[in-house]
Design a protein that fits this description.
The chain is an alpha/beta fold and 285 residues long. The chain has two domains: 155 residues, NAD(P)-binding Rossmann-like Domain (Rossmann fold), CATH 3.40.50.720; 113 residues. It has twelve helices and eight strands. Strands 3-2-1-4-5-6-7-8 form an eight-stranded mixed sheet, with helices on both faces. Strand 7, helix 6 and strand 8 form a beta-alpha-beta unit. Helix 4 packs parallel to helix 5. The protein is globular, with a radius of gyration of 19 Å.
Length: 285
């Protein structure tokens, strides 16, 4: 029997972590560095993934294709994949990005020639800590759940409806990233008033003084801007106000312009709360 081939678009921090898990489980994992950064090339090499010349080569080689991109790139990526899917009706494409159910159904329409699966990820890459949950929905969700995840990822099938996995992500992401935005703003305000240590001591009584989480999230703030807009659209579609998460998207846009956002998320930093606040205070040159 031929080895299962999984294609990755793209092998960034999360994608390379998923790829390494599948590689450890016995799959062939292919990706491309076409149009990608030197950082992606490094992450791909560290994960031991096989690099093909073009996206078309990855699509042609894959039995299952996983798309893991920033939320703002989802539709462009789907259109790029669709250019190479003619005659590949057996190809399973799973979009694992943090977008609204409406956006996901639009992506599914673009990739209608494939066996499309809606997916979302909760937790850090398995290369950081095993146990991320992979939520899946759609007629072929079980096929993606059944990939050789090597005990590094916990797949959960939510049913056959495209949009269900995305809806879950919009709900959980709103809490996780919304709380981080609130703590970030509280720390910045506390720093301005000279009460940072006292504020963090009080938050710590309720397990909310996650200054390390503030620093880690800042490195991904540029991605969170679009994700929070997708959350806002999801809540508006549910008859709720969009204003709360439009405002939080603006908070992350502001964070993305500060020195705290300049590091890569895979690079650990040992910063004190005061240093975190200082790096949130001014924009990089």
């Amino acid at each position: 029997m031929a080895m299962l081939t999984v294609g990755l678009v793209s092998a960034g921090f999360m994608g390379s972590g998923l790829g390494a898990a599948l590689l450890g489980g016995g799959a062939r994992v292919v990706t491309t560095l076409e149009g990608r950064s030197a950082r992606t090339a490094r992450l791909t090499a560290e994960a031991g993934l096989e690099v093909l010349a073009t996206l078309g080569d990855v699509v042609a080689a894959a039995d299952v294709l996983l798309s893991v991109t920033p939320p703002g790139a989802v539709l462009d990526t789907a259109r790029a994949i669709a250019k190479h899917t003619a005659g590949r009706r057996g190809l399973i494409v799973a979009d694992l990005n943090a977008v609204s159910p409406w956006t996901m159904t639009t992506v599914a329409a673009v990739l209608a020639e494939t066996r499309f699966v809606d997916g979302s990820i909760s937790g850090p890459p398995p290369s950081v800590r095993p146990g991320a949950r992979l939520y899946l929905s759609g007629a072929d969700a079980a096929a993606v759940a059944g990939l050789p995840w090597n005990g590094q990822v916990e797949p959960i099938v939510l049913g056959n409806e495209i949009g269900a996995a995305s809806a879950l992500k919009m709900c959980t992401g709103s809490v996780y990233k919304g709380l981080t935005a609130l703590v970030t703003q509280a720390m910045r305000t506390a720093g301005a008033h000279g009460v940072l240590d006292a504020v963090l001591a009080d938050l710590d009584r309720n397990g909310l003084a996650d200054s390390d989480g503030v620093a880690r999230s800042a490195t991904k703030a540029h991605r969170f801007v679009d994700e929070m807009r997708e959350v806002a659209a999801t809540q508006e579609a549910a008859g709720l106000t969009a204003e709360l998460f439009i405002a939080i998207s603006r908070v992350y846009a502001d964070i993305a312009r500060t020195p705290l956002a300049e590091a890569a998320p895979e690079n650990d930093r040992d910063l004190t709360p005061a240093e975190i606040v200082a790096r949130l205070r001014s924009s990089p040159a």
